[in-house]
Amino acid sequence: MIIKTGNGLLIQCVKTMKKRVIIHFYYLFLSVVLAVPTFAQPSLGIYFSYDNTRYSGDIPSGFKYEFKGGYSIGVSSEFKIAEDVYLCLRPAYGSNGSNVSTRIDTLFVDEDLNPIDSLFIFDINTRAVNLPILFKVMVNKSFYAIAGAYTSYVLTADANVAGFSKEVLPQMSRFQVQSAFGFGFKLPIKRSLVNIELTYVQSLNTVTKTRAIEEREAPRLRNQGLTASLHFLIPTTKPRP
C-alpha cells in the first residue's frame, strides 16, 4: 500500500523508521552504559573545557565558516570496567557554535577610486546540555586514548549580526550526536587525579533540521572542532592496603 501511494510517502516512511531504530538503539545503549556504575569502581570530580568549533556543509557563495570559541563545565566521572579500561560519563552545560565571514563593499575607496571591501563576521551560538559517553584506555601509567560519543540537547540558538540577535532554534536539531576521539595525560596528586585531554569531535547528524533543509529555511550543516579539557577527580573508594 505504501509503495502504490508514491515515492514521497515511501521515502518519508523509511526516514521515520530509520529515526525510530536509531532512537531505540541509542536508549538501549544508554541503559547498558548507565547500568555499569552500579558495580564499577568510580572516581568523581569536575571538569572545564575550551571548545573551538565551526560548521561545515552547504554555504552561499562568498561566505566562509570559521572557528568560534566556546566552553563546557560539568561533572566528570570514571568507572573502571576492565584492566586499564574506564567508562567516562560527563554531564555538562556548554556553549559553542561557529563564526561566518564574508567580504562586503564599503563606502571607502582607494587612491584609484576603487571600492574597498571589508571583512564582515557574524556568529551563530548554541547553548546545550551535553552527555559525553567515552571509553578511556590506558596506554601506560600516564598516557591514554579516549573515544566515544557526545550527545547534546540544544536549549537555545541565536544568530548575532552587527549587535542584533535573532533566534534560530526552530531551524536547529534539538538532539545532536557527535563522535569523539583523542588522547590525554593523567597526573596523580596524592589521592586525587588531574587529567588533561585533547579531543576531536565531528557531528554524526546535521545540526539543522531536515524539514528546514528541505524547505530551504537553513543550509545542511554539521559541527566539528577541537576540545581541550581539564579534569579534577577523586576516587570514592579508598585504595586497598
Structure description:
This protein folds into 2 domains: 1-39; 42-235, Porin. Helix content is 14%, strand content 61%. It has helices spanning 7-35, 210-214; strands spanning 41-57, 63-66, 68-82, 85-89, 92-109, 115-138, 143-161, 164-167, 175-189, 192-203, 221-235. Residues 1-7 have low confidence and may be disordered.
- CATH fold annotation of the largest domain: Porin
- Unreliable stretches (pLDDT < 50, length at least 5) are 1-7
Q: Could you say which overall geometry the principal axes of the C-alpha atoms support? A: elongated
CATH architecture of the largest domain: Beta Barrel
Number of strands: 11
Distance between the termini: 70 Å
> Could you give a short account of the major beta sheet?
11 strands, antiparallel
User: How large a portion of the residues is in β-strands, by DSSP E?
Assistant: over 45%
Give helix and strand order, one letter per element, not per position: HEEEEEEEEEEHE
Please state the structural category: mainly beta
Cα-based radius of gyration, to the nearest Å: 22 Å
Our count of domains comes out at 2
CATH class placement of the largest domain: Mainly Beta
Which percent bin holds the helix content?
10-25%
| Average residue pLDDT | 78
Number of helices: 2
